[in-house]
Structures are given as C-alpha cells and as structure tokens.
Amino acid sequence: MGGSLYLLMIILAIFISVAAMIARANRAEDTYDDLETDEWDCPDCGFHVQAGDTCIYCGAKKPQ
Questions:
Q1: What is the mean pLDDT of residues 17-36?
Q2: Virtual CA dihedral for 29, 33, 38, 41, nearest 10 degrees?
C-alpha cells in the first residue's frame, strides 16, 4: 500500500509540473505591450505622465 501511495504522489507531482510549464509557455511575453511607454509633461498642470495619453490630475489630453 505504501509503495503505491508514493507512486501516486510522484505521478501527481509530474502532472502538476507539466501543467505549470505549459501554462508558462502559453503566457504572453510582455504583459504591458498595449501601454504607451513614452512619458510626457502635461501642458496644463505640469504633471509628469508616465503612461497613457490623459493626465490623471487635470484630464488634459496628450499634445500631438
């Protein structure tokens, strides 16, 4: 009985390891690809915006 329990635990560990490797392989390389990475200073309030095209303080749009 003890030997079969060890075998079951080893098979379960291998299954979980394979599932984790498959999940990691299917994950996108960069999660933040859709964000604009260029930073800009808001012309209205002077806040340094690090992501996006709208100032979070005054709502001004990024100048083109």
A1: 78
A2: -120
User: What number of other Cβ atoms are within 10 A of residue 15's Cβ?
Assistant: 10
Two structure tokens written together for 24: 């990691």
pLDDT in tens, 38-61: 899 999 999 999 888 899 999 999
Give the global pTM: 0.43
* Burial state string for 23-41 with b = 16 or more CB within 10 A and e = fewer than 16: eeeeeeeeeeeeeeeeeee
Whether 1 contacts 8, CB under 8 Å: no
